[in-house]
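Ticket #4471: complex job returned nothing on first submit. Input attached below:
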Amino acid sequence: MGQREFDEIASLFRPLTFGAEEAFELRDDAALIRQVPGQDLVVTKDAIVQGVHALESEPPFVLAQRLLRVNLSDLAAKGAVPYAALLAVAWPAEWTAEDRTAFARGLGEDLRRFDVCLLGGDTVSTPGPFQASLTLLGRVPTGRMVRRGGGTVGQTLLVSGTIGDGWLGLQAARGEGDFSAEDRDWLASRYHRPEPRTDLAEEVRAACSAAADVSDGLLADAGHVALASGTGCEIDLERVPLSPPARRWLARQTDRAAALVSLATGGDDYEIVAAADPAVAAQLTRSGGEAGRGWTDIGVLAPAPGLVAHMSGQPVQVSRAGWSHLE
Amino acid sequence: MGQREFDEIASLFRPLTFGAEEAFELRDDAALIRQVPGQDLVVTKDAIVQGVHALESEPPFVLAQRLLRVNLSDLAAKGAVPYAALLAVAWPAEWTAEDRTAFARGLGEDLRRFDVCLLGGDTVSTPGPFQASLTLLGRVPTGRMVRRGGGTVGQTLLVSGTIGDGWLGLQAARGEGDFSAEDRDWLASRYHRPEPRTDLAEEVRAACSAAADVSDGLLADAGHVALASGTGCEIDLERVPLSPPARRWLARQTDRAAALVSLATGGDDYEIVAAADPAVAAQLTRSGGEAGRGWTDIGVLAPAPGLVAHMSGQPVQVSRAGWSHLE
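Support reply: We reran it on our side without changes. The output follows.
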C-alpha cells in the first residue's frame, strides 16, 4: 500500500465506518463482524463494471449508490436488515481525485441512509474501466432468512412496487425510446438510483414463504422462485403493476402483449417477487401503502413445472433471454 | 443473469461450496454465515488486477491461488482460522472457457487445501483486464483477534519465514535480475504462489500481542504494528531472515546495506510480523520448525516513535516507498 492509498483510505473511507469499533478505523488487516444473539448473518456480494452494468456516462456519485442499492435489494428479498459492507474498488487512471471523492460521498450518503457501516475492503488502480464490488452483511432472526425455494403450489405470487421502470429507465438514460421529458427524467432516475425495498424486509419475513429480488426481470425471477420451490408459476401480464410513465409508454405500443413481456423481462427493477398463502397475500395487497410501492397479486404457484404468462385469459409466448434460461 | 452466467456458476463455482448448506448451492440471493458459539467472525477483502498486482503473463490457475492466498495471509496474522469466501470476478473478453475453468480449478484446489468453502459472489464481464476480489471470513475465539496495535515498549519484534523472496520473485518471474536457473524458478514460484502462514495462526493467537501480515514490505508492516501500538521500533537488518536464494543474491550485491533495505521493503512476502514478550519470543524462535519457516527475532518495540534500522550497530538510512508513508 503506497502513500496515496493510505491517505485516500483515511480521508475517503474511514469516515464511512461511522465509528463502528469492529472496523478498527480501517487500520488493521481485517475487521470483526459483530454477532448478535438470536440473529443469523446473511451475506451477498455484487460487482459492477462501468460501461457494462452501468452507463459510461454514469457519474461516480451515482455509481456508488447503485452498487450499494443492488446489494441492499438482495438482502431485502431475504427479509434481512442491512448491517455492514466491505468495498473493493478499482480506480481507472482517468478518474480524478474529485471523481474518487464523489464516489465516496455518494456511498457515504447511502450507507448512512440505510444504516450500514463500512468494515473494510481494498482500493486498487486499473488500466481498465471503473469497477467495484461490495460485500453486504445483514441480519435476520435465527432461522428466518426467506429462501427462494420456500413456496408451495397454490400460493399467491406477489410483486412489490412497479415493474419495467428499470428497463425503460435504461433506455431513457441512454437518450433512446419515446418519452416525454418528464417521464424520461423520472425513468432515468429509477434506473440510476433504484430504491431497494429495505422497507419491506420485515413484511417479507413475516408473511412470505419464498422471495427473490427482481434484478434479472420479473418473469425470470418469478421463475427462479418457482423452480427453487419445485413448482411452476402462472402470471397474468395484465396484473403486472406499472408506473404512470410505464403505462403511458405501453399505451403508445402497437403490440401490447409483446410490450408487456418486455416490461416483465427487462430487469433492473430491484423490487421483490414473493410467494405467500392466499389469505396472507390478500392482506398484503390490501395494506397498500404509498401509491405504486405496495404489493400486487400477479399470479399463482402452479403444479405444472415452467412458467405460463397469460393476457386476457390467453397464454402469451415468452421467449426472451430473461426467461429462456430456466427452460 | 444470462444463460452463460447461470451455467458457469453451476459448473465452475457450485462445486466449490463443498456442499456447505449455508451457500444454498449458490442459487439464492444471499448466503447465511454459520455462527459458532464462543467464536468471533473476522473478515477481510482484497482485490487483484492483472497487470497491476499480477503479471500480465500470470495464468488463471495461479491468479486464483494468489487472490485467495493474500487474503488467507491477512487472516493468519490475526490468529484466525479461515472458514468461507465470496468471490467477485470480472472476466475479460479474451479469456476463453478454458481460462475460466482453469481459474475455478486453481481456486478450488486451494479452497480445499485451506478448508474454505465458497458462499457466493458475482461473475461479470469486463472490457478491461482480468480483475477479481475475494471476501474471506475466518474465526477466532471470542475477543482473541490479534490486533496491529497490541504491542508494548520492550517487546520483541518477530518475523516468520524468510523475507525478500516476494520482491526477488517478482523480478525472477519477469525474467529480470541475476539468478541461477534454479534460484529463478524457486523465487518466481514464491511470488506466484505465496504461502500464507495459516499454520502459525494459533501461535500468533497464543503468544503474540500484536501482528500484521507482511505485504507492503517488512519495514512498512513492522512500522504499522509500532505505530498502531503507540511505540517505535528498532530492526537489525542483519537479523532479517533470508532464504538461500536471497542470501546468494545478497552476496552478489556491492552495497550490502542498500540490498538489505531493498529486501526488507520489497513486499509481497505474506509472512507475519509480530510483537511478543521477550521470554515468549525466545520460546517461539527456539521452537524453530521447518528450516526457513519459523520465527526470527529481528528487533524490539522502542519508546521513541518511528523506525530505526541498524546494520552492524550503525543506523541505516531507510527512505523507500515501503516505509516512507509512515513518517
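Chain B has eleven helices and twelve strands. Closing as resolved unless it happens again.
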